[in-house]
Amino acid sequence: MLGEEAEGFFGAMSRAPEVSLKLNRRKPVDESQIGYGDMERVKWCESGRYLESRPKFTLNPLMHAGAFYVQDASSMIYEAIVDRILPSSLDTGNPLTVLDLCAAPGGKTTSIINAVPDGTLVIANEFIPSRAEILKENLIKWGYPDIMVTNSPTKAFRQLGEFADIVVVDAPCSGEGMMRKEPVAVDQWSEGLLRQCAQLQREILADAFETLKPGGFLIYSTCTFNRLENEENVRWLVEEKGLVPFDLDFPAEWGIRKGIDTPNPCMRFMPHLTRGEGLFCAVFRKEGRYPAACSGREKLVREIEKKLKVLSNGIPRTVLKGRETVAAPESALAVDFDISKYPVADLTPDQALSFLRHEQLILGSNLPRGFVVVRYEGVPLGFVNNLGNRANNLYPKQWRIRNL
What we know:
By secondary structure, the protein is of the alpha/beta class. It has helices at 6-13, 31-34, 61-64, 77-89, 107-115, 129-142, 184-187, 191-211, 231-241, 297-307, 349-356; strands spanning 19-23, 40-42, 45-51, 68-70, 97-100, 121-125, 147-150, 164-170, 212-222, 244-245, 267-269, 279-285, 310-313, 318-321, 324-327, 344-346, 370-376, 379-386, 391-393. A hairpin with a 2-residue loop joins strand 17 (370-376) and strand 18. Helix 4 runs parallel beside helix 5 and helix 8 (191-211) runs parallel beside helix 9. The longest helix has 21 residues, at 191-211. The termini are far apart. 43% of the residues are buried.
């Protein structure tokens, strides 16, 4: 496939992968607070940063607070894609609806959230229950309030009709782009796997097509290199579904390769040309007149709750404790959380890690009894119930960190 580029490609595949993270634009922190020294910006992502080496991210409380997300730089292109298609194409003044059909663990969803305006409804779905729980945790920590997390087969979304302004399919794939990072991708590879993945991808894309509004956008991506799962699926979408390829015309200096043996605009992140893992991406627009009127957010949410398995509708705000309604432990992580309603304890690094291990804390005697927000470097981590001589930890037990 690569001809003269092959030597450079295989040389890059033998090198160590890049290390990168993405900042949460709604939870701004200085890079000095993150504590990883000078970080270089990712060319195609204002929020992306490269690190010189891989630290133990689990030891950084700001990651658990949702101030940043550890993500491969190539995948951060989603923020630039949504930035590019929103202003000129979907700007009707109405709130948008974005559907991410294969969202776990949440990296691309958080990139989308970084780019969309406040008030956009983002529906993040994952079919595998265990992965859906991880997705839910990561998105709650990211703190965006207008998020729904679902655990349903993609076919189930057909029941809702054409409701989404943007549909994302980051499809299950053969994973060739992850081979230098994850040895299991090498072990599991076979030509049969490629054909199986390509068929599954088309089934998911067909479901995505049915949920997309006329004039809306479909974003398709894989983390693999072969043409069967990439350019051939693009051809199928154009010829069989009538989708119109959308050329984003990103700057040449970003190093993103065009598609191979195809007239359709595609993006290939290749490790000998871009600093990141392998990624293929293409954007399409559905033919038809884009509706200027909003179809009704509340009705859509009710339909989703009735017809799909919903793990989370927004970030939990309150919980019933005995006969009393109190703040939900997760509520402090929301970007619109009103911290002024509670006393606050600023934690040291050791205290913050102790809190994240779900251990009891001893806070200063000047704090009142009751619910106290604990934060690190100015970013809330959660709640404790201060009893005076000790503080009971209210961090969700299922999230506690163990590998210290």
